[in-house]
Amino acid sequence: MSKLLAVDVGYSQVKVVDDRGGKFLFPSFVDRSFSTGIKLGGGMDETVMTCGGICQGKSYVVGGNSSSSLNLAANFHGTPEWYALMCKAMFDHLGSMGGKVTDTQLEYLGIGVPLDQRKNEKVKEMEQFNFFEFSVDGTPYTARADKVVVFPQGMAMLQEIDFHEDEEIGLIDIGYKTLDVMVLDGGSLVSDSYTSLSFGVKDVLGKIKDQFKAKTGATLSDRRAQKLLRTKKQTYGRETISMAKEVKEITEGYWNNLLKEIRPFWGEIEMLDRIVVGGGGAVLLGDIFKSKLAGNIQVEIMDDPVFGNVTGYMKSLHSLAGE
Ligand SMILES: Nc1ncnc2c1ncn2[C@@H]1O[C@H](COP(=O)(O)OP(=O)(O)OP(=O)(O)O)[C@@H](O)[C@H]1O
Ligand SMILES: [Mg+2]
Fold first, then answer.
1. pLDDT tens per residue, range 228-241
2. Is residue 305 lining ligand 1, measured as CB closer than 6 Å?
């Protein structure tokens, strides 16, 4: 049994790690299900669950495949949808223990909130979520935690970076919807240097979809837009639509815009010792950023950018638990 569990509920995927080396993710898809438990769609990993707590016994389809459209509202942390995603994280965690484990008692549960929501009241509200109850196929499950620790997204990644005492690092967490940016001086958050901007990968994918539609009249899914970003082409009918020029313009435009938005918070970015980029967006867009700033400033992509936050939460939980 794990004593520590960390869950990073993002707008596009939920990342989970435990203290036994367990690590997994699933899409942040939640939909109200029929109480008969009929599955909507044919995703492999979706779970039909009836959730207690603030969900008040409502049924949801949670998880789903990557072609499900993501539908989370802004500020969804602490809402019934968030609770349902947490229940799914607990369900898969219990399943990873093998056998028929239906209950767990954790010492510490680590969860996150976007950096700009790290207000006292919000943190206090989120700390109350120490009990998750749900049922799947008629079997009840529970997960309790002695203590819930709420971490600021993005900042938790610092745990995964080696830095010097005097080093000033710009940290960027590129998520699906949110982009958290901050400056850390010798490991401490510099006041006024941080914000959550609402343009993550979704913004880039949206522009690619628009351009593709303008060229062909057809609509791309998130999945195809993401692939197009990598391959710069898409088959349409008997044609191969090349989008190399558009992808270059869109991604460069994204980084120019980002640098413009960051400047009021970071000042002269050239004065930073280095910039570290994490989040799933770093996998998709990090290289372009690196080449754009090459020669001006040192830019690094984290080793495991997608799990950067959640493994950061886990490191902090280990120290809280005195390990
Ligand atoms: N392994 C990967 N390869 C390529 N692209 C990826 C990968 N993982 C994630 N992405 C892309 O990066 C995006 C952001 O992923 P991430 O897990 O950081 O988002 P999130 O935490 O759910 O979003 P937010 O931080 O806005 O809540 C995904 O929507 C996807 O487009
Ligand atoms: Mg995220």
1. 999 999 999 999 99
2. no
| Ligand 1 atom with least separation from CA of 305 | 18
pTM over the 0.70 mark: yes
pLDDT tens digits, one per residue of 26-43:
989 888 765 444 444 444
Q: Is the CB of 114 under 6 A from ligand 1?
A: no
Tokens representing 74?
């802004």
Name all domains of the chain by residue range, CATH numbers in brackets.
4-153+310-320 (3.30.420.40), 162-301 (3.30.420.40)
Q: What is the DSSP string of 56-109?
A: TTEEEEES--TTSPP-PPTT-TTSHHHHHHHHHHHHHHHHTT-TT--EEEEEEE
pLDDT in tens, 73-114: 788 899 999 999 999 999 999 999 887 899 999 999 999 998
